[in-house]
Structures are given as structure tokens and as C-alpha cells.
């Protein structure tokens, strides 16, 4: 087992060596600690104690990752944080699991101390199709799910005994962890069609329409179905393919756009009512309640904690010029 103890200035070097390269921001006096077991050539299990920080993996960093590059499966064992990847946001609390891929940009933000148990492995070890893996990333894996409970217990026990195993045993134990993770991902990820039939094309068109018309307050489930010449029932059936409903997808995309605007320093002088309107909410109270349910804090609280230079969606930029 290797032990790393590091300051905020050393965090990027440690993350690049143990996990994947990121741009890290920490408070003065930051201290972190990590213990690492190498299970195989591209397979490792670590336990870490993090201070408050943000870690951003940019599009340029992600573009350097090949298709068989690293994956990270993280179990939050203490504290809270938020993770953003693949247009999804997950609020991580104790016991929650999350799969992340190196080949997509991501951001992890925590305002408190956190503890994690992380399995790092080569993408090629996970016996799932590329589309299944991507759909399984950045989705909350609930601690109460039976498959998640089995995997969490196994990883905790493996970390405790790894030093007593031989090298072949560690490799076998790591592969067993991958097999359990496969079960968890299949449990949480929406079913991914194997082909690109007419239904898949129509679903892609509807999703793109939502992202391009977030500011339209008239865009709801019935209007989305009407614009694509399908019934509301058909719209629900199509969105079942990605494990959600048309209304939930529309709300998620609007809140993600609001989140990015609140993190964008160009919009710091823009009031909450205008941000709500820019992403299609007619009523400020409705927007604030939805944001609080999704992210665990108010829009104003998010702006205070996460304000930085970001890139708001093009459909929103067209509606609200920066001040």
C-alpha cells in the first residue's frame, strides 16, 4: 500500500498520478491523504480524505484520453460533493456511488471535507458496450440498492485485506470487483438500444430540440410531442429508452443551464428572475424550489460557492446578453 499526504499545491500532481489529470482549486491550508493498493497493471483501489476543493477535467484533457483509457468508480463514504459530467449532475452523499469516464469533461466540487473509496481501472476491463458505459456514467447509484450494497461491502473488505494477498490474488479480487460493478451499472443505467432505428433518431431530435429551446416557457411535454408530430404517450415511451420522462428531461436540462449561468462570472450581475426566465421558468419560486431539490442549495447559494468562468449553453446566450 502506498500513502500520499499532500497540500493543495500538490493535489494536481497526485490526482494526475493516481486518478486522471485535473485542474484543482483549494482553500489555503488544504491537506489531503490517500492510501492506494495496486491490484493490477491498470487496476487500483484507493481510500482518500479530501478537503474542500473543486477539480475540473477540461474538454482538452478529456480529448487526450483514448477509448480504452481509465474509468473511476467512486463510493462517497463521508461528506457531500457535486459531480457534473455528460450533461448530468449528481449530488453525492454518504454511501452514494458514481461511475466517471476519463474521455468526457467533468467537474467535482465539495464545500466540506469528504472521504471516498475509488476503484480505478481500464475501460476495456468493463464488459459492457461503449454506449452502455457512457449512459451509466454520472448517474447516482443509491446506497440502498442491493447490488450497490454488495459492491460497497466488497470494496471495503478488499481494501482492508489487499496487503495480505499475493499479486495474482489481488488481480483476481480486482476483476471480481469489476464483475460486481458491471451488475451495478446495468442496474442503474437506462437500456441502450443496439441500433439506430427510427425511434432512436426521433428521440435524439426531441432531446436536441429541448436543449436548443430551453428559454421557451411554452415548451412542455405536450408541446414537445406536438412539435414532433407524436402523441404524449409516444413521447413518454421514447424517453423511457434513456430511463427518464419528457418532463424530467426538460426540467433537468433547464436546471443544468441555470447552474452553468450561475457559475459564469459574466452573469454575476444578472438577477435570479432573469436567469429563471432565460432557462424557461415562468415563476421565480418554482425555479428556486426545483433548483434546491436538484442540487441541495438555492440558486443564490450555488452562485456564492461556485462562481467561476464557465460556458453557458448557446440557446441561453442568445436569449440573455451578458451584463
Automatic annotation (TrEMBL):
<protein>
    <submittedName>
        <fullName>AraC family transcriptional regulator</fullName>
    </submittedName>
</protein>
<feature type="region of interest" description="Disordered">
    <location>
        <begin position="304"/>
        <end position="323"/>
    </location>
</feature>
<dbReference type="InterPro" id="IPR035418">
    <property type="entry name" value="AraC-bd_2"/>
</dbReference>
<feature type="domain" description="HTH araC/xylS-type">
    <location>
        <begin position="204"/>
        <end position="305"/>
    </location>
</feature>
<keyword id="KW-0804">Transcription</keyword>
<dbReference type="InterPro" id="IPR050204">
    <property type="entry name" value="AraC_XylS_family_regulators"/>
</dbReference>
<dbReference type="InterPro" id="IPR018060">
    <property type="entry name" value="HTH_AraC"/>
</dbReference>
<dbReference type="InterPro" id="IPR009057">
    <property type="entry name" value="Homeodomain-like_sf"/>
</dbReference>
<keyword id="KW-0238">DNA-binding</keyword>
<dbReference type="InterPro" id="IPR018062">
    <property type="entry name" value="HTH_AraC-typ_CS"/>
</dbReference>
<keyword id="KW-0805">Transcription regulation</keyword>
<dbReference type="Pfam" id="PF12833">
    <property type="entry name" value="HTH_18"/>
</dbReference>
<dbReference type="Pfam" id="PF14525">
    <property type="entry name" value="AraC_binding_2"/>
</dbReference>
Amino acid at each position: 500500500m502506498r500513502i500520499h499526504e499532500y497540500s493543495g499545491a500538490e493535489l494536481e500532481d497526485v490526482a494526475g498520478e493516481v486518478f486522471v489529470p485535473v485542474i484543482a482549486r483549494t482553500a489555503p491550508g488544504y491537506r489531503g491523504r490517500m492510501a492506494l493498493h495496486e491490484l493490477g497493471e491498470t487496476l487500483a483501489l484507493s481510500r482518500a480524505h479530501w478537503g474542500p476543493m473543486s477539480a475540473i477535467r477540461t474538454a482538452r484533457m478529456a480529448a487526450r484520453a483514448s477509448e480504452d483509457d481509465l474509468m473511476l468508480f467512486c463510493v462517497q463514504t463521508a461528506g457531500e460533493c457535486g459531480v457534473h459530467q455528460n450533461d448530468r449532475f449528481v449530488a453525492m452523499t454518504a454511501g452514494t456511488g458514481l461511475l466517471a469516464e476519463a474521455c468526457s469533461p467533468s467537474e467535482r466540487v465539495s464545500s466540506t471535507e469528504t472521504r471516498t473509496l475509488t476503484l480505478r481501472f481500464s475501460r476495456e476491463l468493463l464488459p459492457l458496450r461503449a454506449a452502455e458505459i457512457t449512459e451509466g456514467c454520472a448517474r447516482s447509484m443509491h446506497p440502498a440498492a442491493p447490488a450497490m450494497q454488495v459492491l460497497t461491502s466488497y470494496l471495503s473488505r478488499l481494501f482492508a485485506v489487499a496487503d495480505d494477498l499475493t499479486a495474482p490474488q489481488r488481480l483476481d479480487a480486482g476483476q471480481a470487483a469489476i464483475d460486481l460493478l458491471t451488475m451495478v451499472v446495468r442496474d442503474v443505467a437506462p437500456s441502450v438500444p443496439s441500433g439506430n432505428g427510427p425511434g432512436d433518431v426521433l428521440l435524439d431530435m426531441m432531446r436536441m430540440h429541448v436543449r436548443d429551446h430551453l428559454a421557451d416557457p411554452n415548451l412542455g411535454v405536450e408541446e414537445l410531442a406536438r412539435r414532433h408530430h407524436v402523441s404524449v404517450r409516444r413521447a413518454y415511451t421514447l424517453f423511457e429508452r434513456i430511463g427518464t420522462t419528457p418532463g424530467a428531461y426538460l426540467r433537468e436540462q433547464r436546471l443544468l443551464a441555470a447552474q452553468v449561468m450561475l457559475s459564469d462570472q459574466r452573469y454575476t450581475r444578472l438577477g435570479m428572475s432573469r436567469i429563471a426566465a432565460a432557462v424557461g421558468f415562468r415563476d421565480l419560486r418554482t425555479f428556486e424550489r426545483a433548483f434546491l431539490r436538484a442540487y441541495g442549495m438555492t440558486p443564490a447559494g450555488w452562485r456564492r460557492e461556485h462562481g467561476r468562468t464557465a460556458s453557458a449553453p448557446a440557446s441561453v446566450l442568445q436569449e440573455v446578453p451578458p451584463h
